[in-house]
Automatic annotation (TrEMBL):
Main function: Flagellin is the subunit protein which polymerizes to form the filaments of archaeal flagella.
GO cellular component terms listed in the entry, alphabetical order: archaeal-type flagellum
Keywords for the protein's UniProt record, in alphabetical order: Archaeal flagellum, Cell projection, Cilium, Flagellum, Membrane, Transmembrane, Transmembrane helix
Organism in which the protein naturally occurs: Methanoculleus chikugoensis
Family note: Belongs to the archaeal flagellin family.
InterPro entries linked to this entry: Flagellin/pilin_N_arc, Flagellin_arc-type
Taxonomic superkingdom: Archaea
Name this protein carries in UniProt: Flagellin
Keyword Membrane: yes
Pfam families: Flagellin_arch-type (PF01917)
GO biological process terms held by the UniProt record: archaeal or bacterial-type flagellum-dependent cell motility
Localization per record: Archaeal flagellum
Transmembrane intervals: 16-40
Length: 211
């Protein structure tokens, strides 16, 4: 009669193999999760860098002086004009999509309207309609206007390309009087805000260089 012996060696080896495989699977899953998080972080960092480069390369600059124009007999400025161009290495931008705001101690126009057919005369008319901030009542006719007065070395579109220059006119309200500081913010569709901080001169002439 044969005698049966109990031997658990094989079963113990199988358990160890199962546990080892489970550890390998868990480690692989955790490795995949960590690598995925790393790839996601890297992609986000690249997006931030690319966006920053795009923002910087799409900015513009003011070339030369800023002039204040008045025909009101020295009472106040009616509009300002200045020349803009791309910064060195900057990309083209659509000037017509630029948001312009005007602020002085008494008047604030949060969205000066773009007039595609505007000129010096229309800026003077818009200047007379601009009202103090408490009287705005969301009336767009009281917010003033801005326009492209002239283009230098440019074609007929509103895209400001490298090498081109646009002369911009922005209407100012009756509160732009002598010694009054004001700010005109230029926000292009892509790029940082460009702030023009100037002060109306002590004596207002038909043409004034603003500082």
């Amino acid at each position: 009669m044969r005698t049966l012996f109990k031997d658990d060696n094989a079963f113990t080896g199988l358990e160890a193999a199962i546990v080892l495989i489970a550890f390998i699977v868990v480690a692989a899953v955790f490795s995949y999760v960590i690598l995925g998080a790393g790839f996601f972080t890297t992609q986000k960092s690249q997006e931030v860098v690319h966006t920053g480069v795009q923002q910087a390369s799409s900015s513009m600059e003011v070339i030369g002086n800023v002039y204040g124009i008045s025909t009101t007999g020295g009472e106040n400025l009616q509009y300002i004009k200045f020349t803009i161009g791309n910064t060195a290495g900057g990309t083209a931008l659509d000037v017509s999509k630029m948001v312009v705001t005007y602020t002085d101690p008494e008047t604030r126009s949060p969205d000066v309207k773009y007039n595609s057919t505007g000129n010096a005369d229309s800026l003077k008319v818009a200047s007379g309609k601009m009202k103090k901030s408490p009287d705005l009542e969301d009336d767009s006719d009281k917010l003033g206007e801005w326009c492209i007065l002239e283009k230098v070395n440019a074609n007929t579109d509103t895209i400001l390309e490298p090498g081109e220059q646009f002369i911009i006119g922005v209407s100012t309200p009756g509160t732009a009087k002598v010694n009054v500081p004001f700010t005109v913010n230029l926000q292009p569709s892509v790029g940082a805000v460009f702030a023009l901080k100037r002060t109306a001169p002590a004596g207002i002439y038909p043409v004034n260089i603003l500082y």
